């Protein structure tokens, strides 16, 4: 490798997340409409030895030890590289986080000629979809992907109340694990059609997460008060998103929500990555 390269690790959003059953191994079967936001972390790869440095607004919340998914991804690919991770997104927050970062490392390594490891799921259930970083229906425990046509333009606001939430803890708190799957996902003609379709879907983890962190309920109410056309929690939380009619409304909402001391950003859908 002669020079370094940069990969964007877009925030993953579960626009809809249905939990359809729990299997014998304790994992949950999911059915989810996933998309990626223009807000994200940044990964820079340069010649080794293998190491990880973290900077950015949420660097302190992250442990750069050998367990970090970025290092484990590089090791799995057999790559001796130096990784600089700029952590712009809150950690343990239901928007991909470590999985998006590790997937960005793997995309960068692919551009350098390294093969993508086959046993990706070992790193995390969200890694396959984060590798694609494009709209997809995600099923199974995350390994079954159906890529979707581009979604209508979205004016998104992401909000996190500043408290981490453990994914296993939220799964453990689910009251119902046998829920209906998603209806067929159409090729959405426009924003209104997407919002209408989402109105018939759920995030089956939302009630359990609100039970653990009631402030998530406050975030959802606040997003609605800011005029969002649709609001929901992403993944196992605590990050929530709102879909707005215009970019101006989204920007104003993000500024209002920041005044509560919450992390909030207005953004749109991510551009597709160089390779996935
Ligand atoms: O794979 P990931 O690190 O995202 O998952 C964290 C934990 O969440 C798993 O160890 C498992 O307890 C739970 N999980 C699950 N079903 C899934 C994905 C994750 O039960 N489909």
Rg on CA atoms, Å? 18 Å
* Attached small molecules: cytidine-5'-monophosphate
Tell me the series of helices and strands, N- to C-terminal. EEEHEHHEEEHHHHEEHE
| Total DSSP E strands | 10
Q: What's the end-to-end separation, in Å? A: 20 Å
Biggest sheet, in brief?
6 strands, mixed
Label the structural class: alpha+beta
- Rough outline: globular
Give the low-confidence spans: none
The number of helices is 8
> Which bin fits the share of residues in helices?
25-40%
The averaged pLDDT comes out at 95
Strand content: 25-35%
Structure description:
The chain is α+β, with helices and mostly antiparallel strands and 276 residues long. Helices cover 26% and strands 28% of the residues. It contains eight helices and ten strands. Strands 1, 2, 3, 4, 5 and 6 form a six-stranded mixed β-sheet that branches. It is globular, with a radius of gyration of 18 Å. Bound molecules: cytidine-5'-monophosphate. Cytidine-5'-monophosphate (C5P) binds at residues 27-28, 30, 124-126, 141-142, 167-168, 171.
